[in-house]
Specification:
The chain is an alpha+beta fold. It has one domain. The protein is about 20% helix and about 25% strand. The protein has 4 helices and 11 strands; from the N terminus they run ββαβββββααββββα. Strands 3, 6, 7, 8, 9, 10 and 11 form a 7-stranded mixed beta sheet that branches. The longest helix is centred in the first third of the chain and has 13 residues. The radius of gyration is 16 Å and the shape is globular.
Length: about 190
């Protein structure tokens, strides 16, 4: 299926799926940047992450996580991605395959194992988590013992996550919110 270039929140996203993740981040109040910068390896390989979340932590550590969004079935191609970009990219990087509701804390029925922590390489089953008290967001491994905020004594707010995921899935992008001819953007 061909991706549909979609306009949302002052950005042209390369696909509706990426735009839906932007809706999810915005609904949660998570600061994000879409395709903020590209990276080049020593051998000339190039990589442009989809999102950068400057205030979000990976596993409660330092702030700033890059996010790669892929279609639902991309996990079959995971090893190709893992064996290229993650070999030289040094910033915290997580790849989510599919829609936000499949990767949120507390939605145990729909969780997919294709939320990959690529850099540093550790786990699958990575989920979005947001604090019920201070609103801090983190990406965490799916395990109940990680249901704590690194900033305050709050726990995960699964209702807020579900509401944002629902908003992302039902968001309608009108006929004029996309442009399949990239050259006409300017």
């Amino acid at each position: 299926m061909k991706a549909i270039d979609t306009y949302f929140n002052c950005n042209y996203h390369r696909s509706r799926l990426e735009a839906r993740w932007a809706v999810f981040f915005k609904a949660l109040g998570i600061k994000y940047q879409y395709e903020p910068e590209g990276f080049v390896s020593a051998n000339g390989s190039k990589y442009l992450p989809d999102f950068y979340l400057p205030e979000t932590t990976l596993r409660g550590k330092s702030k700033g996580v890059y996010i790669e969004i892929k279609h639902q079935n991309y996990d079959k191609e995971y090893n190709v991605f893992e064996n290229t970009i993650s070999k030289w990219f040094t910033e915290p990087l997580v790849m989510f395959c599919g829609y936000p509701f499949q990767h949120i804390w507390g939605n145990w029925d729909d969780i997919q194992e294709n939320g990959y922590q690529l850099v540093p390489p550790i786990d699958t089953y990575m989920l979005f988590w947001i604090c019920n008290k201070c609103g801090h967001s983190k990406i965490e491994y799916m395990e109940g013992s990680y249901d704590e905020c690194p900033i305050c004594d709050g726990v995960g707010d699964s209702k807020k996550l579900m509401a944002a995921a629902h908003e992302a899935i039902v968001k309608r992008f009108e006929y004029d919110s996309f442009n399949t001819n990239i050259n006409q953007r300017e």
